[in-house]
Amino acid sequence: MFEVGLDFARSLDAADDLAPFRDRFVFPEPSHRPEVTYLVGNSLGLAPLAAREILIEEADKWATLGVRGHFETDRPWTPYHELLAGPMARLVGALPEEVVVMNGLTVNLHLLMVSFYRPTAERFKILIEDHAFPSDHFAVESQIRFHGLDPSEAMITIKPRDGEETLRPDDIVEAIRHHGPELALVLLPGVHYYTGQVMPMERIVDAAHDVGATAGLDLAHAVGNVELSLHDWGADFAAWCTYKYLNGGPGSTAAAFIHQRHHADANIARFNGWWGHDKTTRFEMNNEFLPIPSAEAWQISNAPIFSMAPVLASLAVFEEAGGMKPLRAKSEQLVRYMDFLLDEHLSGQVESITPRDLEQRGCQLSLKVVAPKVDGQAVFDRLQEADVECDWRYPNVIRVAAVPLYNSFEDVHRFVSILTEVLK
After folding, report:
1. Is 85 exposed, middle or buried (0-12, 13-18, 19+ CB in 10 A)?
2. For 248-260, what is each residue's pLDDT tens digit?
3. H-type alpha helices, 147-293
4. Closest to 44 in 3D by CA, of 25, 68, 30
5. How far apart are CA 367 and CA 342, in angstroms?
6. Which of 65, 257, 349, 395 is deepest in the core (most CB within 10 A)?
7. How far apart are CA 421 and CA 424, in angstroms?
8. How far apart are CA 330 and CA 408, in angstroms?
9. What CATH number is associated with residue 11?
10. Do 13 and 154 fall into the same domain?
11. Helix/strand number for the chain, H first, E second
12. Same-domain status, 289 and 328
């Protein structure tokens, strides 16, 4: 199906309906080569051209309207977060009222665990993966301590079998069933940050609910990467950032999902704030909290406009591209092409720990350098010197991600060619 030559890569790009979207993003300036090979959208997505424009518009609005910018113009600040709910919901397979853009990822995880980790004497344990992203581990550990419990007793971690890098889906489900009577919460990623493995999210949610636990998902590496159906899967909650595949810029505002079935629960635990109060009476300034009957009830503060504006610009590009279905189709072709080139040129020198099964992988490929007497960190350093933007994760993984919105098949060909050159 694939061929090794550069002309073939260019023929794939010529036939790619999504190729024009590459011109909607700004690539960094190269230092040594004619262009940067940017394969690190799994860490920080590229800047949409429209991000600068919308930020300038909001800054001009502040300068010319002052406080009136909250209510005037066709994009007022007071309901600004509502502009993002619809397109964000379409990306994650949710209803608009189930999604709210707010805070940062770990802050949202904490706020959601206030609602959905309610330990009892019988059910007090949280199940996470052994090699969780540190921030998730810290959040879970601190939530357990907040309830006066011991993490060594209340935190269950699951890890791959000996000699394996990724979790087997059946093993995840079996672990949930095994610990079921004591489980209060299952909190797992949609895509594992280190291995790039796409988790069996629907099976995780079903298994958690089957044993009476709540199910939460950290989708930092999943949103904008793989297709999601949060509403239909029935996840209780999810949280994600917007600066990776969603191209919202460094530290851009995160987002959260709370399933519709929880919105009318008057007794749900929640940290309340003014921006979660009923919109029609918010400015009457009384002190009786009336929650908005949607995910917005979990908001505490008003929208950070300059942090949300680039997200709005990026979501417009996703909408124009047709959403996740065409993007996922291109992503699958990109990763299969990268597999092919690595097999052809670097078999026995570089090994991927990301599953080859397309259902268990997204854009990211996690590579180990296995060539004898070659230091993986040194290879990564040489890649950076050659204007290849990727990242290194301790102890020995180089992560690369060909993002379908702006990466090309020629990017993939160039990366493998440079990696081959470095390893020589």
Report:
1. buried
2. 999 999 999 999 9
3. 151-154, 169-179, 201-210, 230-233
4. 25
5. 10
6. 257
7. 5
8. 10
9. 3.90.1150.10
10. no
11. 13, 15
12. no
